[in-house]
Amino acid sequence: MSETDGLYLRSDVLIVIRSAGERTTQLCESLLSRQVVPEHIRTIREVPFSQAVIRTFELGLKFGLPWTVAVDADVLVHPRAVHSLVALAEAGCASDFRLDVRLIDKLFGVPRCVGMHLYRTSHLDQALCFARACERVHRPEYHVVEQMRTVGYTDSEVEAVLGLHDFEQFYGDLYRKGFVHAQKHAELQEPLTRMWKRWSVVDPDFQAVLAGSKSGRDTGGTAVTDARQFTRSLADLGLKNLSEKPPLEIDDPVAQDLDVFIGDFDSSPDIEEFLQIQAMQHETSTQKPSVLSGLLLRARAILRIRSRARRLAGWIWDRNSVSGPQRPISSEPSESVSRPLEWHERDRLTPEFEQAVQASSPLACCPNSPSELHTLVDHQHLWTFALGAKSLLRFVDNLAIVLHDDGSLTEEDQVLIREHIPGLRIITRQEADERMDRVLDPYPFCRQFREKNRVMAQVFDFPQFTAGKRLITFDSDILFHSRPDEVLDWLTDDTAQVLFDEEVSPVCPQIHGVDITIRQDIPFGFVETLSGGFVCGFPAMYELSQIEEYCRFVLKNCHQQLYRSQTITAMSAAHSVFTPRSLPQTYQNPHSFAAGPVMRHYRFSRLPPAEFLRDAFGILKCLEQTAD
User: Fold this and answer.
1) What percent of the chain has pLDDT over 70?
2) Of 351, 387, 367, nearest to 623 (Cα)?
3) Which of 103, 206, 343, 609 could make an SS bond with 200 (beta carbons 3.0 to 4.6 A apart)?
4) Which of 164, 161, 162, 160 is nearest to 255 (CA)?
5) Which residues 6+ apart lie within 8 Å of 573 measured at CB?
6) What does the pLDDT look like over 531-545, one tens digit per residue?
């Protein structure tokens, strides 16, 4: 094996990329060439698809390597996808014929098994016989799997999400996919069409999908899987308002930080359409579910699937915004406060909300206080932060506020926020980067984490820029509804406790789909339910040498959701001399919203803004009455 970017290039795997001229073909090849030796990567262009399946098996037998991985050219793989997949296969059963990979599917908005499959080469002789005997079936590759099951072979699915599917495709190919989906997944057309229509407002990809879907429904019959039967002319497809995309460059921003985007995906909110999709897929399976299993399915969807749509919609907005400059994906890391709100949420939050906050009276902080509140803010969330800070300052008269600019604040932003919160200190992006470059010079893995995810400022920048003894980490989408006695006591008492807002199953790095915070074989302890959005702690609890070892461990062993600042906070708190203590349930996350809150953390990526706006205007009214 040879080495690249800290990972070994595997020589025990054959990669067969099946291409029908997809826009991402070269990028797919490039991403896989960073994981497998180049001589073991082959791109084929066989049509119809049944011939591609046959050729895949033939190549696997010809090379004779232990593993043969089939990858469709519309797939973009995670940097550790092949390594993770082989590790899982090696730990599996000898009778396993195929291992299916879950990918984030753009058109479905959920991870599903599609586009990438690992085969045990020793079983391909039998599979090839079945493939040659079923060239004319509707789904040739799945038909082979079904036939292999009849002779005693098994197959399984990988829980971890290891890539993206159908992102950055040509409009013509997206039309074809919409056509095929309309016939292959007729039972899902209602929720899918509803989603596609909403997303088509901000992403023209879904205009092409909708047009193809309508044509597929009108045509009826068996789904066409031969790309040659579709014209490449958008005008002939009824897409006269679209111009075909240019070829995709290998260094396109979509290839940057795929692990961050994939890892962040599971932290998105719940949405009705995907619960419907999951339920409908379950109900149409061969085994009718019991009432209990249906409830468990829905609970799992709510707690683990979490509406990937809103996360996806935010990414779509960033790539296709018509109202401002586009940013590369690398500037929108996981947990990022700088990722945009969905397009409809932006419209609803402005201009009435911003005008109302700007019309509120200033509330000063105490810049010389030994207790400091630090927050990372972008231009878009400036006024949500302003209201959140004021909602707390009305109860606290001895607290410093330090705002870390993510790089998007304008000079006018800085002037206005200082007027609203006199005494506020602003750390510019340039100032932070210059200082942290020096501080993290002896810690290369910490540096890598900070570069990958801007929200890592919470564990690196915040402690370094804290002049006082106490540090409050504060997300910009938090509002205080009533007097936070627990926080006020912590600020005034000589306590060594770390207070935190609890969260059920916070997203964290995983090894083979299992959270590292609950594994028994991890050399670190964690405060398992700690949410990083609101933490009353101490700069001294963030030991860079220990965090360096944690970062090294995660990069070497974990497979997804790597760059999580709250997991580092949970680890640092558990290993410090301080005692972690969860705040009462009146400090609420979206899972636990109830009457009588002291604080609410709204998480715009997890909740429609209506509830936030209702609460925000109520707090603004209280601030107005206090000022009078």
Assistant:
1) 79
2) 387
3) 206
4) 164
5) 498, 500, 527, 530, 535, 537, 541, 580
6) 999 999 999 999 999
